[in-house]
Write a structure and sequence with these properties.
3-stranded mixed β-sheet; two-stranded antiparallel sheet; elongated; coiled coil
Amino acid sequence: MSTSVVHHDFPYAEPAPPPPPKIVLLAHTDLHGGGPCGRLLLHGDLGDKPMPPKKKVSFLPETNTMVHTYPPAPQPTPTPSSAVVPKIPPPCSVSRNPLDDKVYSASLSWSTDKISEFKAYVQQLADENLDTNQSLTSQSADRVTKVITMTLLRYPELDNFKEHWPLRCVLIYHLKNRSRAAKQSIDRKITNWCGEKDRTTAKGSSNTPQTCSRRRSHDDEEDRANNPVQRQPVTLPKVRLVVVPDPTSPLELAQEKNYALRSELSAAQESAKHQAAQLEALRAQLFQQQATIDNMTQHEGEMEAQFFGDQEKIDKMTKDVSALYPQLLASQKQLMECNKEIDRLQRLHEERTSEALQLRHQAQASKSPLQAPRRGKRTNLTPVHNISRRPIEIPLDPAPIPGSSGRAEAASTAPPPPSTDPEVEQIAQRVAALLKDSFVTINGKSPKSKPSKKKTIKCDYPKEVVTYVNNKLRQITLARFDVQQAGDFAFHVPASARLVKACGDGLNNDPPAGLFQWDFSDGYGKSRWNDLMMQKIVNLFLRDDGANGVLAEHGVHRDFLEQKLGEQLGRYRTSWKAYQPRFLEAQGRMETQAEAHARALGANDQHLLSSRSTTMKTAKFTKRKDTVDKTIEIKKLDGTAQDIATWERLLEMLILLGEQGMSSEDEDELEVDGIKIPVFIVKICIWREPRIVDYLRLVDAQTAQFKGVQRPRGPKPETRVRKPGNGNGVAKAPVGLPRSLYNEQWLAAASPSYLKELKVSKEAFELFVAATGRMGS
């Protein structure tokens, strides 16, 4: 309601009734809000229950602590190992102007563009995930947490601020503005809707605000014209009429339905995204499976084609074999017939030869009747090829008759007279033809293949000279090839195949004088490159030895030096070959360099361990044999000993066992009263007869007695520990021993193939019971 003040020329105004009030809708004015009266229905009365007071927003002074009305963000549970990092609290000025860029620039150290981008991103998330018609405190906690999580993924530095206050301030202010704008929009729509309804119902009447206003203006003009005296103006209270929309209005229903549809749309979008991701994963899996199926199909086709090809080859070979089988049978039958014919002819030939010899004997007897006839000798010939294995017996010619040396010599040297029997000649021709066709030799001596010549130099030089040559050659080789020991050639870089091939092709491609590299290829023994290298090393050897050296003194030839150097070259290549990668058939690939080195190092360690074990076994065998020999010699000189046969039996047993029959030993330390004593842990020979241990203990006891009477020179004998827990030896059992020296249980558990390799001797060697009471006599 509005009033106007009229100025008159008269100082006094006559009393008059006030003008009628003019009712104006609040929507047609600049006033907003319900005011203390609240919202009322059009032409409605106030209810009995008072309206609740409207919420107001007030700002606290800067000195007070800001109180948050929203629930705090969930904090992670601290662990004992994680350090507590203090969060940045919000400044006091943030409550007055939440969207002030200066506050964010000072707190976050961000540029203006980044702050604007941050606000726009948060507002977008709020519009997509939150209800913009409600404040932040009225939102769902899950949706708010989702917005905070998505923002922290893009701006992780916000996690350093207490309760993420920059993000929450933007959300509070944005949702407040959105809800206020939504309410204002609803109020305008309701007001317009109510105004249209009012105009529709009161159309044609004079109660509209425009009609009332025009009428009041006209009445005022008439009053001023009729009453020249100014009247005293009367001020009336303002009345505001606020139209409250019906809760069940179509607009609210449409808004609720729109919100529900938006929620369903968001859920459908999330589900569609999830299903799209699953669909992409399934497509990728399908493509992978399809590729696998295609590869398997292709491989199956190749295998099928290979199978058909192999089947065709097998069929062809079967046909060829079927065609050759009758020929083979016919040839075999023909060969058997030929063998039979050869046997018959040989028997006939022997008979005819005997007759011929008898005739010759009779002829010689008729010429010298005073000498007694001598019968011829027979000899066994080697089996004839392609005939039966029955040996051929051919008697030799009789010895010459004494007294007629000239005639006998002439008779022995002259060929036998030809036989006049045509049947014998025919048989001899047929035998010769058969033997020629069947490649049969009567004497059984086939020509031997000529052995290949190998360049070997007979070594008649003293042992000291050979040792000197080997050491000198090794010293020069290691110095020129820049290595410390022979095992270092495992990492030697051999000459390239191109240089080796060029050197072997022409004389102008010799290796440089200062280059020392071996050719470790497969044909290293016949490589011209290696020959030139060995010549250079031999030349250096001869230069160092001089004209009056050891070689000149003993007449050592150059070929002998090259032979020894070639032997050393073979050992160098063996060391290098052990470290080269090999093909792993089980895995179908080549070894890596690390795997090859590990394998070679393990083999080298095993070789050193085996060599050391062999050396210890040799020393043990030599010591025991010397002890037994010395004991037998002493007892024989004594003349009164009764156990010489026992010691001789021990010597036979030691010789049969040999070096491999000795037990293995491992070095160890045994602590006695706090003092560590070096000992040898004796391994158990599981293959050896257990009673042999007692016999060897007798020998060791005699050895200890011999050392007890000697002067204490050299290292002292170390203790040997024998107990069941020492473990079994890993050395192989010696082959060819009598059965009594093997463990019967071990033989029973061995496989037949291993027993065949063991070659157990059938020689009888009975063990005995030694009389230990006469030990040391």
